[in-house]
Specification:
Elements: H1 2-28, E1 32-42, E2 53-54, E3 61-67, E4 70-75, E5 78-79, E6 85-91, E7 98-104, E8 107-112, E9 115-120, E10 123-128, E11 135-140, E12 157-161, E13 164-165, E14 171-177, E15 184-190, E16 193-198, E17 201-207, E18 215-219, E19 225-228, E20 230-232, H2 238-243, E21 250-252, E22 255-256, E23 259-260, E24 266-272, E25 279-287, E26 290-297, E27 300-305, E28 307-313, E29 320-326, E30 329-334, E31 337-342, E32 344-350, E33 357-363, E34 366-371, E35 374-379, E36 387-391, E37 394-401, E38 404-413
Antiparallel strand pairs: 1-38, 2-3, 3-4, 4-5, 6-7, 7-8, 8-9, 10-11, 11-12, 12-13, 14-15, 15-16, 16-17, 18-19, 19-22, 20-21, 22-23, 24-25, 25-26, 26-27, 28-29, 29-30, 30-31, 32-33, 33-34, 34-35, 36-37, 37-38
């Protein structure tokens, strides 16, 4: 056992060193970027730029428009039916389907590709599968997630997958599909106990609450699976702390298959490499009201920050990057080393050939696309911070300048010395 553990540890260290060498190579030569812009649409004055959604390839675009008698969805330039209110707008990753929740006369309706599919008894949250063929949604009845009062019973929550209703719980969170779109997982809470529900089957229970459900399950490739069960630290002053508005003292560990991680105040954002051999997650440390987070990659801890998010592995599984925030600055960390600093950083994306790291970022009011630290363009806050890669040496972004939606095409040229 000890010999196997040493071999595994050396393998992890070797992968980490290799990642650092690759990351150093990424920053040694800046790419030559060529930018082209083309108009996609002119937003009407009543459209909310923050409510624009798009498919993974950024070819299908939808947004909500205000009308005198309500709201409607505009998809591919065509306006749909008007409702009193529309929320939860979602476009499938393949761009073939549009779904949203609509409110009419106080009733919540599921609208799928323009057709009213179902009236439900609560607020909706929608999620498409990666292949765009399946739809799951959570129904939160009025009062779900709130502590019971004398005014009435606590509302319940349930997950509906492909039209089939699951069991009702006090709360439901973190719904996700597997990478192959075949499986569904979420965290459910009942009576201060949480469980991870996989394809409708409940796992082992753990300490939980409406405020901190825990679990944070995630599928990886090839059947890989991880989650973060938690336990509540029992103290004589628990009731006093809760009355003072302070959270319960929880501890959580990541369980990645048979691998158990170190204990933290909280664990979230479990991520797998594309080949399934590597993993990462975020471990949080709470001290009073102060919260610090750090990335844990292949079991190795990285530096603490105020926040860590958007962890991503490269397509060849050799590199890992994430965004972190300290105070008013955001930094991009690649291979454990800080590379680029901006005021704000969007989600991170490696190019399909794993040679470049791209993302949206801002300094002051201006936003721009960044590739290996090189900035391209200057825009208003983007409607979506996703990027698409039609070719290994090119990317597409959906940008906004005033009321104009723009498709931004960035060609990534080879730098000198490459």
């Amino acid at each position: 056992m000890r010999k196997a553990a040493i071999v595994a540890a050396l393998a992890i260290v070797g992968v980490t060193l290799w990642s650092n060498l690759i990351a150093a190579g990424m920053r040694s030569a800046a790419p030559d970027l060529s930018v082209r812009e083309s108009a996609v649409a002119t937003l009407p004055p009543t459209a909310d730029p923050a409510g624009i959604v798009a498919s993974a390839n950024l070819q299908k675009i939808a947004y909500v428009v205000q009308r005198d008698d309500g709201q409607c969805v505009v998809a591919d330039g065509k306006a749909g039916k008007t409702y009193g209110r529309i929320y939860g707008l979602a476009v499938s990753p393949n761009g073939k389907h549009v779904a949203y929740a609509a409110v009419r006369d106080g009733a919540n309706l599921l609208v799928y590709d323009g057709a009213e599919k179902r009236e439900v008894d609560g607020r909706l949250e929608l999620a498409f599968s990666p292949d765009g063929q399946r739809l799951a949604y959570t129904v939160f009845q009025p009062g779900a997630g709130e502590q019971p009062t004398t005014a009435g019973p606590q509302g319940k929550a349930r997950v509906v997958v492909d039209g089939s209703d699951g069991r009702e719980y006090d709360w439901v969170g973190q719904l996700a599909f597997s990478p192959d779109s075949k499986r569904v997982v979420y965290t459910a809470v009942n009576d201060q106990r949480g469980t991870v529900v996989v394809d409708g089957i409940e796992g082992k229970s753990f300490d939980s609450s409406l405020d901190q459900p825990g679990g944070y399950p995630a599928f990886g490739p090839g059947g890989k699976f991880g989650y973060a069960p938690q336990r509540r630290k029992r103290t004589a002053f628990r009731a006093v702390l809760r009355k003072a508005g302070m959270a319960d003292d929880y501890r959580a560990r990541a369980l990645i298959g048979a691998i158990e991680g170190k204990e933290y105040s909280a664990v979230h954002s479990i991520t797998f490499s594309p080949d399934g051999t590597r993993f990462g997650y975020v471990g949080a440390r709470l001290s009073g009201r102060d919260r610090k987070e750090r990335a844990v990659v292949d079991g190795l801890e990285n530096r603490e920050y105020d926040e860590v998010r958007s962890m991503v592995f490269s397509p060849d599984s050799k590199q890992v990057a994430y965004a972190a925030r300290s105070g008013n600055e955001s930094v991009v960390v690649v291979g454990g080393a800080e590379r680029y600093t901006f005021e704000n950083v969007g989600d991170l994306f490696f190019t399909p050939d794993s040679r470049h790291l791209a993302f949206w970022a801002s300094s002051g009011p201006d936003w721009f696309v960044v590739v290996d630290g090189v900035q391209a363009g200057r825009y208003d806050p983007p409607p979506t911070r996703s990027l698409a890669f039609p070719q290994p040496d090119s990317l597409r972004a959906l940008a906004r300048r005033g009321d104009q939606l723009l498709e931004v095409a960035v060609d990534i040229g080879r730098a000198e010395g490459r």
